[in-house]
Every structure is written in C-alpha cells, then in structure tokens.
Design a protein that fits this description.
alpha/beta; five-stranded mixed beta sheet; globular
Length: 262
C-alpha cells in the first residue's frame, strides 16, 4: 500500500480536492484543476489521428506508460534546445511534383532536435534501467515529407510541433526518475548524473545547459503537467513513491473507495 507514504510528506489534508465521476470518488492532495479521468487502456498511442490534446488529462499508472504524467500542459519553446519551434517555418511548393513541404533548412533543424531528444531519452533510460516505452517520434507526422496540399503540410507541421511537448514529458520523467535509480544523483562537480552521462556521451554543454533551463527540467508549480491516477491499495514494482510525484509537482489523483477507507 502507498497510504503510508503520504504520512511522511507534509500535506495539508484539509485542502485536498475531490470530485465524483461515474459514481467513483477521486481525491487529490496537490491539484484542483478540473480533470476527466480516462478509462483504463493499453498502448495509448495505438489510436488514429494522434494529437497532443489527447494527453492533457491524468493517466492511470502503468510501468510502461506512467511517464505520460509528466507531459507539460503549457510547454515553452523559447529556450534551447527547442528554439527552432519558436518561429513559423516556411512551406515550399515543388511544382513538378505538385506537392508542398517544409523548407529543407527548417526540416533539417527540427530533425536534428528530434534525434538529440530521442538519443538523450534512450541513453538515460537504458543507463539507469528506467521502465517506459517511448512515444512515436515527431517525424511520424511527416513534417519532413511532401504533401499533396499546402493545408495538409501546415497541419502536419503544427501537429509535429505540438508532439515535441510529448517528448518533453518523456525526457522530464526520465530526468526526474534518475534520483530514484542512480547511486549518486550528483557528482563532485555538482552536476546531475543525467547531465554528466549525456556530456560523456558527446552531447554539448550548450545543448545540456539549454535543457537545464527549459520546460523539461522545470519541476515546480509554474510548469503544470498532466498528472497520474492511482489506487492506493494496489502496487506495481516500478511505481515511484507518492512523495516523488508531490516533490516534482506532478498532480496525483487517488481512487477513494471502501478498500482505501479500510
């Protein structure tokens, strides 16, 4: 049971939020925003017409998809390494193919950022053996492919840009989890273990410094995230402690039933 974990964390229980959905009572010690609890499901990405808006609600905990709790609701692309998404890319027409595509220079910049994000998540996840399956990559939306109409090209570009925020959430979760999986979260130089790992694997100081100051590494109330739904009476091996979610300002919702009362 996780109920005991709450006893060690300073929480004002008088300020808990609660609501009823389909006859089930849900309570939260750290979130009062209106939410809709989704149904339990398998792979959340095996759906048609994927878009960022599908991942703005709390998710049920699972070892492989629990990281979706860290998806930012208001991501910022202002700071490196996400600055190419701050400006509107150009869409060009290929007259002899009668197709439209993102300008090669812009597509190349986006793809470079995508590859770095993918490699960073892979290296952290594998090094610290953190459970979690990655989401589809932004290029799966075809921002770097030709399309039959300009409207379609723009739609895919906008969807891909939004999808970078899903990868922000994945990397945020992995970074936050290194505290639980690393033997020494910080080295003698004061660097976080994940920072040192990526630095040693060839990532530039500039890229990592930008990541440190971005939405990815912001774990305070100013960076709202999707949140998690759990049952206190059920436990899974890879489940972080309740205080971990609270410390990282990830909204937590509990099912409250007779089992929890007992």
């Amino acid at each position: 049971m996780f109920l005991g974990a709450l006893d060690d964390h300073e929480v004002d229980f008088s300020n808990w939020s609660a609501f009823v959905q389909q006859g089930i009572l849900y309570c939260s010690p750290n979130c009062s925003r209106p939410v809709v609890i989704p149904q339990l499901s398998g792979d959340p990405f095996k759906r048609s017409h994927l878009r960022r808006e599908m991942f703005q609600q709390p998710v049920w905990w699972s070892d492989v998809w629990g990281w979706l709790c860290a998806v930012p609701l208001s991501p910022s692309f202002i700071s490196p390494p996400f600055e190419p998404m701050c400006w509107k890319p150009e869409v060009e027409e290929t007259w002899f193919r009668k197709s439209y595509h993102m300008r090669e220079q812009d597509a190349k910049a986006w793809l470079e950022k995508e590859v770095l994000l993918f490699e960073a998540t892979q290296k952290i996840r594998l090094r610290y053996r953190i459970p979690g399956n990655p989401p589809p990559r932004p290029s799966a939306f075809g921002y770097n492919r030709p399309h039959k109409s300009k409207a379609t090209a723009w739609r895919m570009i906008n969807m891909a840009r939004d999808w970078f925020s899903i990868w922000m959430g994945f990397l945020s979760y992995l970074i936050a989890q290194t505290v639980n999986y690393a033997n020494d979260p910080e080295d003698n130089a004061g660097l976080h273990c994940w920072y040192r790992l990526l630095l040693d694997r060839g990532f530039s100081d500039a890229w990592l410094s930008g990541l440190m100051g971005s939405t990815v590494n912001s774990f305070d109330a100013a960076t709202p995230r999707a949140g998690i739904v759990m049952q206190l009476t059920e436990q899974q091996v890879a489940h972080p402690k309740i205080e971990w979610f609270l410390a990282h300002h990830i909204p937590v919702w509990f099912v409250w039933s007779k089992r929890e009362e007992e």
